Amino acid sequence: MSDSLAVLPQYLLPKKALTIFAGWVAGARGGSFTTALIRWFARRYNVNMAEAAQPDVAAFASFNDFFTRALKDGARPLAAADYLCPVDGAISQLGPITGDAGDRIFQAKGHSYSTTALVGGDATLAAQFKEGSFATLYLSPRDYHRIHMPCDGDLRRMIYVPGDLFSVNPTTARGVPGLFARNERVVCVFDSAEGPFVLTLVGATIVGSMATVWHGQVNPPRRPDLCEWTYAPGQVSLKKGAEMGRFLLGSTVVMLFGKGRLAFNPDWSATRPIRMGEAMASKAA
To answer: What does the alpha-carbon distance between residue 183 and residue 167 come to, in Å, rounded to a whole number?
Structure first.
């Protein structure tokens, strides 16, 4: 079956209703039901609870508490690298931002989308990443779902972009054009010593919400229009490796960096498993 046919049911499913229901279930404090759900999920997806700060699934009051669980100290040592991997998961794609206008992000064979579309239509913001670099990182259900900083950053803007709620698994990435620029997302714009960078949290079917450490839960509510928050220099400054946000149920992170900023780890390639804190890139020579 082709990928386009495989994702056809997603166009027909009531994705928003399913996501609202999943968010309600995940946030409920259902006692024995919640514990049974967590036990089933941990077995189904082979979740490694031995590395969790709280390894007892019965200790979590809600599924969300389990899903956004902290890790034991030292479970993710930080590499001596200029840029760190911000999440556990797998590499979807990475490389140069290309195209005639230097603004195309490769999604999958036959599909790409523009940096302007990703950041919610702000062409001036997108232009800062012309001919730059991108990395798209996929978090599966079994993964640790907190998101960390790839380098030191000073937050300047956060943009909530309403959109669809397609799944973001590899099959959907191959079958839905412009997937990451059409799904709901939270675009975080940082300044760093090497220039601006963008870290985008992409929503998906049954992703109950996305949250950041400075704002808390960004969605729900699911607003019909784009919303933006701006921050003064120094108002929100985060160090390399620090937590910046989390997904309540899993999704994808897309990062943008300026031209000539970095060189990706030569061991990194599409589909490779990754862990938060490993070396992602070095400063460009």
So the answer is: 9
Confidence at 85, pLDDT banded by 50, 70, 90:
very high
Distance of CA 173 to the CA centre of its chain: 14
Q: Are 130 and 143 in contact (CB under 8 A)?
A: no
Residues 229 and 212: their CA atoms lie apart, in Å, by: 13
Please identify which residue in the block is written with the tokens 């479970």: 75
**139 near 87, Cβ under 8 Å?**
yes
143 is catalytic: no
Q: Give the span between the Cα atoms of 1 and 85, in whole angstroms.
A: 34
To the query of whether residue 56 is one of the catalytic residues in this protein, the response is no
Host H or E run for residue 175: helix 170-175
Query: What is the number of other CB atoms lying within 10 angstroms of the CB of residue 96?
Result: 15
The per-residue pLDDT for range 41-72, each reduced to its tens digit, is 899 999 999 999 999 999 999 988 998 899 99
Tokens describing residue 221: 């509510």
Measured distance CA(141)–CA(242) in Å, rounded: 22
Assess whether 148 carries a catalytic annotation: yes
Among the listed residues 3, 62, 82, 88, the single catalytic one is 88
Q: Which of 62, 122, 148, 192 is catalytic?
A: 148
CA-wise closest residue to 132 among 160, 94, 170 = 94
Q: Residue 64: in which H helix or E strand, if any? A: helix 63-67
Total count of residues recorded for the chain: 285
- The model's pTM is 0.91
Per cent of the chain over pLDDT 90 is 68
